[in-house]
Structures are given as C-alpha cells and as structure tokens.
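How a chain folds remains the central question behind the approach discussed here. The record that follows shows the chain in one-letter code together with its fold in token form:
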Amino acid sequence: MDLPVMPPVKPMLARSVATIPEGMHYEAKWDGFRAIVHRDGEEVVIGSRTGKPLTRYFPELVAAVLTRLPERCVVDGEIVVVRQGRLDFDLLSERIHPADSRVRMLSERTPADFVAFDLLALGEVSLLDAPLSERRAALCEALRDSSPPVHLAPATTDVQVAREWFDRFEGAGLDGIVAKPLNLRYRPDARAMYKIKHARTADCVVAGYRYHTSGPVLGSLLLGLYDAAGRLQHVGVCAAFPMRRRQELIGELEPLRMASVAEHPWADWTDEAAHGTARLPGAPSRWSGRKDLAWVPLRPERVCEVGYDHMQGDRFRHTTQFRRWRPDRDPLSCGYDQLVEPVSYDLADVLGGGPDLAPPADGD
C-alpha cells in the first residue's frame, strides 16, 4: 500500500458542549465503531479509533469498499449495524470475534454498513490540510455513485435543521449531533470538533458496587431498574467520583452490604445461562477479557439520581453521571417507565435522505 496518508491514522475527535453552536457544518453522531478506511487498488485496511485494524472482522465491508470507493482513497467514517430500522451497538460488538468461521457467519447474519463523513486523501493528494468545506465537496463527488452498504453521511449548514435532527434522529438510534467548523483542517487525535448529546436523568436503585482498580475504595456503583414484571434489571454503572469520595462511599454503603449474594436479585450473575433471560452484572464479554467482574452486593434500598445521554435497548449506553441521592424515592418505584422514549424514526430515512428531511448542505 502506497497512499499519501498511510495507516494507521487516529481520527479527529470531538469534545462535548451543551448546545449546538451556530455557523458550522452539522452531521448526526453515529453510534458505532469509528473507522478510517484506506484503499489502494485491491488492498484495503480498515483502522479503528486506536489505530488497530478492524479489517478481518468486516469482510462484507472490504468487498463493498472495493466496488464503491475510489481506487485510491482514505475515508473517515463509522461502521454501524442496523436492526429493525435502528442502530444496534450490541449486535455490532458481537462482530469482534476471534473465530474466523463466526466472523464469516456474522457478516451474513448481521452485515455492517459504513457511513462516510470525511475524506483524508484521494488519488495522489493528501487532503489533511484542506478545509472541511473542500474535503466535504470532494467526498460528495467521490461517493456520487455509491450505494449501500456504503453511505454518505447527511449534512447541513443550517443550524435549525441540525436542531431538528437532534430531536428526530434519536428515534433511529443516533445519539446527538457533531458540529465542525467549515474551515477546519483534519487534525488526527485532536478534539477539534464539537459533539452535542442528549442529557437526561433517571432515578436508579443502587444494588451493588465494584472496587476501584487502585485498591479498597469504591470503583463504580451498580445501578438497577425494575421491569414490568417486578424484576430488578442491571442497567449500568456510575463511576466518576473523586478519590476521597470513593473512600467515603465504602463507609456510607456498609450498612447495606449483604453477607452473601444468595438472597440478592442478581444472585445468578455467575450463571451464563441466566444472562439470557435477565440483565445481570458481569455478563460474559470479549471486551472484559480477564478483567475482574466481581462485585459487592447491597440490599436494594437506596436510590440515586444519575444523568444519562442514550439508551441501548434496556440499558444505559454509556457510564452515567452521579447527580444526588434520592432518600425520598421508594426503590420499587424506580422502573423503566420513567425513561424518555424517543419517537421512532427509521434509519433508512436518515441514510437515504427521506422525503421529510431538509435539503442537504451546499455541495452535498
């Protein structure tokens, strides 16, 4: 491979801001694997956010790149998996598997798509120093005749349209908006863009905790919500505390500590089969590797309010943020019914520029 921009390349990143800034280029924030695709003739390398190759895990995308991207190019984008009109990160995560036979099987059962949103090189020319407006125009031209599973990310320069997308696209599994200055040069591994994500709160039952990797202080709170059948489901963790507060929490939670997990709602957490019918802490995962998933059971009697941005099915997609204790809340009242459910929106309308989407930005 001999391209003007060679792998590995760490992608340009975004930092969080509270509101959508005006006067920029706007795109949806995709919930998938960030990937930079290098193609030089018959050679294809798909690099991850860390620079490690993802190529072997997505053979169907390698085949698509060879027929739908220019012969020599470097494209930044996102790998996603779609199920029932929504992005599904859990299915996407399953695609990272050591067995080649399973990789091939999953490439047919849950095929991935690639959403392109930046162009780093074309032919013999590096575009890293070109402003975003030029890179976007070149990307639109390069993908003019492309087709699924390779998509051109919808974009606009109209901030009002971006605000509408922020609300509507969540129903298709997207989790916010990315804003980029129009004159922005491509800056690998720099937080030079802006991301705006949904911010919501929920009251959750604190049903356990894990120790911090540094020693006998609290690492994370294990959070639960009751489902319609009255079962406490593990929905995520809350982990960002100052070290002094981590030490204090161990003492504060000691009166709730259970001598054994046997009487806990999540008593079957070590039984792999139990994870098929309930959401429990410590679910087997290729991502956890040899990580110690042991946890300390607490009587589910204490409630805390947490901030969250996005749901993935029946759990929080990301680590939540602790807001406050809620001694006024009955733990049994902490159910899924308190969560905001976005209005359903078909991802095909996002990727395909459905009839109710606003016109794309100039040059798109």
